[in-house]
Amino acid sequence: MTVAATPLLEVEGLEVAFPLPRRRHWPAPAPLLRAVAGVSLELAAGETLGVVGESGCGKSTLLRALIGLERINGGRIRFAGEEMTGARGAALRRLRRGMQMVFQDPFGSLNPRLRAGQALEEALRANFKLAAAERTRRTAALLERVGLAPALKDRFPHELSGGQRQRLGIARALAVEPQLLLADEPVSALDVSVQAQIINLFAELRRDLNLACLFIAHDLAVVRHLCDRVAVMYLGRIVETGPAAAVYARPRHPYTRALLAAAPEPAADRRLARAPLAGEPPSPADPPPGCPFHPRCPLAVARCQQLRPELAPAPGAPTHQAACHLAGQ
Protein backbone atom coordinates (compact mmCIF):
# COMPACT_ATOMS: atom_id res chain seq x y z
CA MET A 1 0.00 0.00 0.00
CA THR A 2 1.25 3.53 -0.70
CA VAL A 3 0.07 6.61 1.15
CA ALA A 4 2.86 9.03 0.30
CA ALA A 5 5.98 9.27 -1.85
CA THR A 6 8.17 9.35 1.28
CA PRO A 7 6.28 7.86 4.23
CA LEU A 8 7.23 8.96 7.72
CA LEU A 9 6.93 5.37 8.99
CA GLU A 10 7.43 2.20 6.96
CA VAL A 11 6.90 -1.24 8.48
CA GLU A 12 7.56 -4.34 6.39
CA GLY A 13 6.87 -7.92 7.44
CA LEU A 14 7.13 -7.21 11.17
CA GLU A 15 7.26 -10.32 13.37
CA VAL A 16 7.06 -10.47 17.16
CA ALA A 17 6.98 -13.90 18.82
CA PHE A 18 7.17 -15.04 22.42
CA PRO A 19 8.49 -18.49 23.41
CA LEU A 20 6.04 -20.58 25.40
CA PRO A 21 6.97 -22.93 28.24
CA ARG A 22 7.68 -26.47 27.08
CA ARG A 23 7.40 -29.72 28.91
CA ARG A 24 10.43 -30.87 30.84
CA HIS A 25 12.72 -33.18 28.85
CA TRP A 26 10.67 -32.49 25.70
CA PRO A 27 13.14 -32.63 22.78
CA ALA A 28 11.27 -30.33 20.39
CA PRO A 29 12.03 -26.56 20.34
CA ALA A 30 9.86 -24.36 22.54
CA PRO A 31 6.66 -23.38 20.72
CA LEU A 32 6.21 -19.74 19.73
CA LEU A 33 3.27 -17.43 20.18
CA ARG A 34 3.27 -15.13 17.15
CA ALA A 35 1.73 -11.96 18.53
CA VAL A 36 2.54 -9.97 15.36
CA ALA A 37 2.70 -12.10 12.24
CA GLY A 38 4.09 -10.29 9.23
CA VAL A 39 2.53 -6.83 9.55
CA SER A 40 3.30 -4.23 6.87
CA LEU A 41 2.03 -0.66 6.94
CA GLU A 42 2.94 2.90 6.04
CA LEU A 43 2.11 6.23 7.65
CA ALA A 44 2.56 9.67 6.16
CA ALA A 45 3.53 12.81 8.05
CA GLY A 46 0.46 14.39 9.62
CA GLU A 47 -1.68 11.30 9.03
CA THR A 48 -3.65 9.33 11.62
CA LEU A 49 -3.98 5.56 11.22
CA GLY A 50 -6.40 3.72 13.48
CA VAL A 51 -5.70 0.08 14.39
CA VAL A 52 -8.71 -1.92 15.58
CA GLY A 53 -9.45 -5.50 16.55
CA GLU A 54 -10.43 -7.69 19.48
CA SER A 55 -8.32 -7.94 22.63
CA GLY A 56 -5.29 -10.14 22.07
CA CYS A 57 -5.03 -9.55 18.33
CA GLY A 58 -1.57 -7.94 18.62
CA LYS A 59 -2.37 -4.22 18.48
CA SER A 60 -0.49 -3.16 21.60
CA THR A 61 2.41 -5.50 20.86
CA LEU A 62 2.75 -3.85 17.45
CA LEU A 63 3.10 -0.40 19.03
CA ARG A 64 5.53 -1.64 21.68
CA ALA A 65 7.67 -3.23 18.99
CA LEU A 66 7.78 0.01 16.99
CA ILE A 67 9.02 2.02 19.98
CA GLY A 68 11.51 -0.68 21.00
CA LEU A 69 9.74 -2.04 24.09
CA GLU A 70 9.39 -5.48 22.50
CA ARG A 71 12.09 -7.38 20.61
CA ILE A 72 11.23 -8.01 16.98
CA ASN A 73 11.92 -11.41 15.42
CA GLY A 74 11.76 -10.37 11.80
CA GLY A 75 10.91 -7.61 9.37
CA ARG A 76 12.12 -4.05 9.18
CA ILE A 77 11.15 -0.59 10.41
CA ARG A 78 12.09 2.68 8.71
CA PHE A 79 11.36 6.03 10.32
CA ALA A 80 11.86 9.42 8.66
CA GLY A 81 13.75 7.68 5.85
CA GLU A 82 16.24 5.94 8.18
CA GLU A 83 16.53 2.28 9.08
CA MET A 84 15.58 1.63 12.71
CA THR A 85 15.85 -2.14 12.73
CA GLY A 86 19.63 -2.29 13.05
CA ALA A 87 20.23 1.10 14.67
CA ARG A 88 22.16 1.23 17.93
CA GLY A 89 23.33 3.76 20.51
CA ALA A 90 22.95 7.46 19.77
CA ALA A 91 21.39 6.83 16.34
CA LEU A 92 18.64 4.70 17.85
CA ARG A 93 17.98 7.19 20.66
CA ARG A 94 17.66 10.00 18.11
CA LEU A 95 15.15 8.02 16.02
CA ARG A 96 13.15 6.97 19.07
CA ARG A 97 12.85 10.59 20.14
CA GLY A 98 10.89 11.21 16.96
CA MET A 99 8.15 8.79 18.03
CA GLN A 100 6.61 8.92 21.48
CA MET A 101 4.16 6.64 23.27
CA VAL A 102 0.93 7.63 25.01
CA PHE A 103 -0.08 4.72 27.24
CA GLN A 104 -3.49 3.32 28.08
CA ASP A 105 -3.04 3.72 31.84
CA PRO A 106 -2.00 7.32 32.54
CA PHE A 107 -1.36 6.65 36.23
CA GLY A 108 0.89 3.65 35.65
CA SER A 109 2.95 5.52 33.04
CA LEU A 110 3.82 8.43 35.37
CA ASN A 111 6.41 8.48 38.13
CA PRO A 112 4.35 8.83 41.34
CA ARG A 113 7.24 10.66 43.06
CA LEU A 114 7.47 13.46 40.51
CA ARG A 115 5.16 16.44 40.43
CA ALA A 116 3.58 17.26 37.06
CA GLY A 117 6.05 20.05 36.30
CA GLN A 118 9.00 17.89 37.34
CA ALA A 119 7.91 15.10 34.99
CA LEU A 120 7.97 17.53 32.07
CA GLU A 121 11.25 19.11 33.09
CA GLU A 122 12.83 15.66 33.36
CA ALA A 123 11.89 14.91 29.75
CA LEU A 124 13.29 18.26 28.63
CA ARG A 125 16.50 17.81 30.62
CA ALA A 126 17.10 14.33 29.16
CA ASN A 127 16.74 15.48 25.55
CA PHE A 128 17.81 19.13 25.34
CA LYS A 129 20.56 21.32 26.78
CA LEU A 130 18.44 24.12 28.21
CA ALA A 131 18.88 26.71 30.92
CA ALA A 132 16.62 26.33 33.96
CA ALA A 133 14.55 29.38 32.96
CA GLU A 134 13.93 27.96 29.49
CA ARG A 135 12.87 24.60 30.91
CA THR A 136 10.40 26.42 33.17
CA ARG A 137 9.03 28.37 30.21
CA ARG A 138 8.65 25.27 28.07
CA THR A 139 6.98 23.38 30.92
CA ALA A 140 4.36 26.12 31.26
CA ALA A 141 3.81 26.12 27.48
CA LEU A 142 3.35 22.32 27.43
CA LEU A 143 0.78 22.46 30.21
CA GLU A 144 -1.12 25.15 28.33
CA ARG A 145 -0.85 23.19 25.07
CA VAL A 146 -2.73 20.21 26.56
CA GLY A 147 -5.26 22.29 28.50
CA LEU A 148 -3.86 21.99 32.04
CA ALA A 149 -3.91 24.94 34.43
CA PRO A 150 -0.45 26.28 35.42
CA ALA A 151 -1.17 25.60 39.11
CA LEU A 152 -1.31 21.84 38.40
CA LYS A 153 2.45 21.73 37.84
CA ASP A 154 2.94 21.29 41.60
CA ARG A 155 0.60 18.32 41.95
CA PHE A 156 1.56 14.65 42.11
CA PRO A 157 -0.14 12.15 39.75
CA HIS A 158 -2.43 10.84 42.52
CA GLU A 159 -3.73 14.38 43.01
CA LEU A 160 -4.88 14.62 39.38
CA SER A 161 -8.01 13.22 37.77
CA GLY A 162 -7.76 10.50 35.13
CA GLY A 163 -8.25 12.99 32.32
CA GLN A 164 -5.64 15.35 33.78
CA ARG A 165 -3.14 12.50 34.10
CA GLN A 166 -3.66 11.55 30.46
CA ARG A 167 -3.18 15.16 29.40
CA LEU A 168 0.06 15.18 31.39
CA GLY A 169 1.16 11.98 29.64
CA ILE A 170 0.49 13.62 26.28
CA ALA A 171 2.40 16.74 27.34
CA ARG A 172 5.37 14.59 28.35
CA ALA A 173 5.32 12.93 24.91
CA LEU A 174 5.19 16.35 23.23
CA ALA A 175 8.13 17.64 25.29
CA VAL A 176 10.69 16.01 22.98
CA GLU A 177 9.02 17.45 19.85
CA PRO A 178 8.14 14.14 18.15
CA GLN A 179 6.85 13.65 14.63
CA LEU A 180 4.75 10.60 15.53
CA LEU A 181 2.57 9.67 18.51
CA LEU A 182 1.89 6.01 19.26
CA ALA A 183 -1.38 6.02 21.22
CA ASP A 184 -2.28 2.72 22.90
CA GLU A 185 -6.01 3.02 23.66
CA PRO A 186 -5.46 6.39 25.35
CA VAL A 187 -9.12 6.93 26.26
CA SER A 188 -10.31 3.45 27.28
CA ALA A 189 -9.40 3.96 30.98
CA LEU A 190 -11.23 7.30 31.18
CA ASP A 191 -14.81 8.24 31.97
CA VAL A 192 -17.02 8.65 28.93
CA SER A 193 -17.44 12.35 29.68
CA VAL A 194 -13.67 12.83 29.52
CA GLN A 195 -12.99 10.65 26.47
CA ALA A 196 -14.37 13.21 24.00
CA GLN A 197 -12.10 15.92 25.44
CA ILE A 198 -8.96 13.78 24.95
CA ILE A 199 -10.04 12.77 21.43
CA ASN A 200 -10.54 16.44 20.56
CA LEU A 201 -7.11 17.19 22.00
CA PHE A 202 -5.52 14.62 19.67
CA ALA A 203 -7.33 16.20 16.74
CA GLU A 204 -6.08 19.67 17.73
CA LEU A 205 -2.48 18.47 18.11
CA ARG A 206 -2.56 16.87 14.72
CA ARG A 207 -3.96 20.03 13.13
CA ASP A 208 -1.70 22.49 14.91
CA LEU A 209 1.56 20.51 15.03
CA ASN A 210 1.17 18.33 11.90
CA LEU A 211 1.69 15.25 14.09
CA ALA A 212 1.26 11.77 12.69
CA CYS A 213 -0.51 9.29 14.97
CA LEU A 214 -0.88 5.53 15.15
CA PHE A 215 -4.02 5.22 17.23
CA ILE A 216 -5.24 1.98 18.83
CA ALA A 217 -8.83 1.85 20.01
CA HIS A 218 -11.61 -0.60 20.79
CA ASP A 219 -14.26 2.05 20.12
CA LEU A 220 -14.89 2.08 16.38
CA ALA A 221 -16.73 5.39 16.65
CA VAL A 222 -13.54 7.02 17.98
CA VAL A 223 -11.51 5.70 15.06
CA ARG A 224 -14.10 6.83 12.57
CA HIS A 225 -14.06 10.35 14.00
CA LEU A 226 -10.31 10.76 14.37
CA CYS A 227 -8.51 8.66 11.77
CA ASP A 228 -7.78 9.08 8.06
CA ARG A 229 -7.21 5.38 7.51
CA VAL A 230 -8.05 2.17 9.36
CA ALA A 231 -6.15 -1.11 9.72
CA VAL A 232 -8.08 -4.09 11.08
CA MET A 233 -5.99 -6.73 12.91
CA TYR A 234 -6.91 -10.34 13.56
CA LEU A 235 -4.62 -12.93 15.13
CA GLY A 236 -1.50 -10.84 14.60
CA ARG A 237 -2.23 -9.94 10.97
CA ILE A 238 -3.79 -7.00 9.16
CA VAL A 239 -6.86 -8.36 7.38
CA GLU A 240 -8.23 -5.10 5.99
CA THR A 241 -6.95 -1.57 5.53
CA GLY A 242 -8.07 1.51 3.67
CA PRO A 243 -9.50 5.01 3.99
CA ALA A 244 -11.73 5.21 7.06
CA ALA A 245 -14.76 6.35 5.07
CA ALA A 246 -14.42 3.44 2.62
CA VAL A 247 -13.88 0.79 5.29
CA TYR A 248 -16.90 1.94 7.31
CA ALA A 249 -19.13 2.37 4.27
CA ARG A 250 -18.22 -0.91 2.56
CA PRO A 251 -16.14 -3.32 4.65
CA ARG A 252 -14.54 -6.01 2.48
CA HIS A 253 -13.61 -8.56 5.15
CA PRO A 254 -16.22 -10.56 7.14
CA TYR A 255 -14.35 -9.82 10.36
CA THR A 256 -14.57 -6.07 9.76
CA ARG A 257 -18.26 -6.42 8.98
CA ALA A 258 -18.79 -8.30 12.25
CA LEU A 259 -16.92 -5.66 14.27
CA LEU A 260 -19.01 -2.88 12.76
CA ALA A 261 -22.24 -4.84 13.27
CA ALA A 262 -21.40 -5.29 16.95
CA ALA A 263 -20.53 -1.62 17.52
CA PRO A 264 -23.17 0.20 19.63
CA GLU A 265 -23.66 2.96 17.09
CA PRO A 266 -27.23 4.06 16.26
CA ALA A 267 -26.28 5.15 12.75
CA ALA A 268 -24.63 1.82 11.89
CA ASP A 269 -25.81 0.13 8.71
CA ARG A 270 -28.33 -2.48 9.84
CA ARG A 271 -27.43 -4.73 6.89
CA LEU A 272 -24.15 -5.55 8.67
CA ALA A 273 -26.10 -7.40 11.36
CA ARG A 274 -26.29 -10.36 8.95
CA ALA A 275 -22.60 -11.09 9.63
CA PRO A 276 -22.49 -11.96 13.35
CA LEU A 277 -19.20 -12.65 15.13
CA ALA A 278 -19.40 -15.95 17.03
CA GLY A 279 -16.95 -17.87 19.13
CA GLU A 280 -13.52 -16.94 20.46
CA PRO A 281 -10.37 -16.16 18.45
CA PRO A 282 -8.00 -19.13 18.00
CA SER A 283 -4.77 -19.19 19.96
CA PRO A 284 -1.92 -17.34 18.20
CA ALA A 285 0.29 -20.21 19.40
CA ASP A 286 -1.73 -22.63 17.26
CA PRO A 287 -3.43 -20.71 14.43
CA PRO A 288 -5.73 -22.62 12.10
CA PRO A 289 -4.60 -23.47 8.55
CA GLY A 290 -5.73 -21.33 5.67
CA CYS A 291 -7.49 -18.10 6.55
CA PRO A 292 -7.12 -17.58 10.32
CA PHE A 293 -10.69 -16.28 10.49
CA HIS A 294 -12.38 -19.21 8.72
CA PRO A 295 -13.47 -21.11 11.90
CA ARG A 296 -15.63 -18.11 12.85
CA CYS A 297 -16.58 -16.86 9.39
CA PRO A 298 -20.19 -17.32 8.23
CA LEU A 299 -19.09 -17.09 4.59
CA ALA A 300 -16.13 -19.52 4.63
CA VAL A 301 -15.73 -21.93 1.71
CA ALA A 302 -13.36 -24.87 1.23
CA ARG A 303 -10.58 -22.69 -0.14
CA CYS A 304 -10.61 -20.61 3.06
CA GLN A 305 -9.63 -23.70 5.09
CA GLN A 306 -6.63 -24.49 2.88
CA LEU A 307 -5.11 -21.26 1.53
CA ARG A 308 -4.32 -18.14 3.55
CA PRO A 309 -5.36 -15.01 1.62
CA GLU A 310 -2.96 -12.09 1.35
CA LEU A 311 -3.83 -8.40 1.44
CA ALA A 312 -4.91 -7.35 -2.03
CA PRO A 313 -6.68 -4.28 -3.45
CA ALA A 314 -10.43 -4.50 -3.63
CA PRO A 315 -11.88 -4.32 -7.19
CA GLY A 316 -12.04 -0.70 -8.27
CA ALA A 317 -10.51 0.53 -4.98
CA PRO A 318 -6.69 0.35 -5.10
CA THR A 319 -6.24 2.00 -1.68
CA HIS A 320 -8.72 -0.35 0.02
CA GLN A 321 -7.20 -3.78 0.70
CA ALA A 322 -8.52 -6.97 2.27
CA ALA A 323 -7.10 -10.42 2.99
CA CYS A 324 -10.17 -12.40 1.95
CA HIS A 325 -10.83 -14.81 -0.90
CA LEU A 326 -14.35 -13.38 -1.21
CA ALA A 327 -13.49 -9.69 -0.92
CA GLY A 328 -14.56 -8.93 -4.46
CA GLN A 329 -17.93 -10.61 -4.19
The main β sheet shows up as: 8 strands, mixed
Mean pLDDT: 88
Compute the gyration radius: what is it?
21 Å
Number of strands: 12
* C-alpha termini separation: 21 Å
**What percent strand?**
15-25%
Tally the helices.
Answer: 10
Structural class: alpha/beta
What sort of overall outline do the alpha carbons produce when their principal axes are compared?
globular
Instruction: Give the uncertain stretches in residue-range form.
Output: none
Query: What string gives the helices and strands in order?
Result: EEEHEEHEHHHEHEHEEHHHEE
Spatial sequence of strands, sheet with the most strands: 6-7-8-3-9-10-12-11
- What share of residues is helical? 25-40%
Structural description of this entry:
This protein is an alpha/beta fold and 329 residues long. Helices cover 31% and strands 22% of the residues. It contains ten helices and twelve strands. The strands form two sheets. The chain has an eight-stranded mixed β-sheet with strand order 6-7-8-3-9-10-12-11, with helices on both faces. A four-stranded antiparallel β-sheet has the order 2-1-4-5, with helices on one face. Helix 3 (116-127) runs parallel beside helix 5. The longest helix has 18 residues, at 192-209. The two termini are 21 Å apart.
Please supply descriptive tags for the structure shown above.
329 residues; single chain; 4-stranded antiparallel sheet; 8-stranded mixed sheet
